[in-house]
Amino acid sequence: MKLSSLTTGKSAVIIEFEKDDLHIKLMEMGCVPGETVKIEKIAPLGDPISIMVAGYNLSLRKTEADHIWVEEI
């Protein structure tokens, strides 16, 4: 499933990325395969999404979260 489809409070493990230029940027921000992420908040209109990853909060646009494939835990 895509990270953007998770709801607030859910956790997941990053499996892979869609291969494009964005995946390098995401990996530099701590979103690496095998890392656990938790959805902290979702803005009222659904964009941006605040996640907890690698011990810090990160805000992603929904279009960026669409590039991250995860497995819910």
TrEMBL record:
A molecular function (GO) term: transition metal ion binding
Domain Ferrous iron transporter FeoA-like: 1-72
Superkingdom field: Bacteria
Keyword terms of this UniProt record: Iron
Regions crossing the membrane: none
Protein's name in the database: Ferrous iron transport protein A
Native source species: Chitinophaga fulva
